Amino acid sequence: MNKLGVAQLLDDDGLPLFSLRDINALPQPEKERIYAVMIPQMVFDRFGFSRDSFAAPQQYGGADNRIQFICPPGLGLLHIEVRRRAADRDCIFFVELADTQFQQIELSFCIINDPDAPRFDIDRDSSGRDNCFATMRRNIPAEIAAMNAGLSPNQVRAGLKMFRDFFTRFERFVATLGIDIITAEPLSYSNAIRYEQYGFDYITGKQFMLWISREFAPGGELYRRLDGSSPFRQPGMEKTVRGRSWAIQDGILQRPWDGIKIYKTVGIHAGVDTFVDKIY
Known about the structure:
This protein is of the alpha+beta class. The chain has helices at 20-24, 28-35, 41-45, 140-148, 163-176, 189-197, 206-216, 221-225, 241-249; strands at residues 68-70, 77-82, 93-99, 105-112, 181-184, 201-204, 261-265. It starts with 19 loop residues before the first helix and ends in a 15-residue tail after the last strand.
C-alpha cells in the first residue's frame, strides 16, 4: 500500500505496472480499461457515454463516437479525448499525461469545456489562425468578451466543474503505479493559483509568484500599472485571481509568463498559498 492506501496496479497476468510506458505495452482493450478510471463520472452520467464500450449515446454518434485513448506502444504518453459529437471542435474532456525521466508523471494538459456554453475564439487570431494559447498572436475582442463572461485566460468556453473529480481519480491512478510525484507547468497565473489549492508546491517560480502577490498589493509596481490603459488593466483587478491573470495575459509583468514549474507529492497537500484571501 502507498500514501493513499491503494494497491499496486497489475496487468491481467498479475504483473506490476510502474509507468505509462508499461501500460502502453498492453493490448488496447486492457489499456483502455486501466486508463478509464481517470475519466470524470460526469462524462458518463450527464453525457451518456458507456463505461463498458466508451461509446457515446446514439444521439451523439453511438459507436462511431468513442472516447479516444491515444497511448502508443513504446512511449510513455497518454491522451484521452472526449467529444460530445465526433466532429465537435472542442473536447468535453481532454487530458495529456507523460512519464518523466525521473519516474514521475507529468500532467501536461487538462481541458474541460461545457459544450452548451458560448464559445470565445481566444485560441485564434483575427485571421482565424491558431495562436498557440495566445502566446504568438492575440484576439483582443474575443478576450474582452471572454473576460466579461467570467472566463479566465485560455478558456474558450466555461468549464463543467469536474476538475476536482478528475484530479482525485488521477492522483489515485498515479499512486497505483507506485509513483510519488506529479509535475506540471501552469499555463497561466490562474492555473498556478488553482493548482496550489490542490496541494502543489513549486519546483521553480515560487519567489516570482510571491513577487506578483506583493506587487499587486496597494502601492506595488503591478498595482500602479493597473491604470485603465486597456480593458485588462482596470483598477480593482488586483483583487481577484481572474483579474490578475488577465492583466498578466496583457503583459503587465513586462516579462514572459514562463519558468513556473510545480509538483505535488501524492497524498500530501503542500499548503502553499501565494495569494491569501483570494477571490476568483
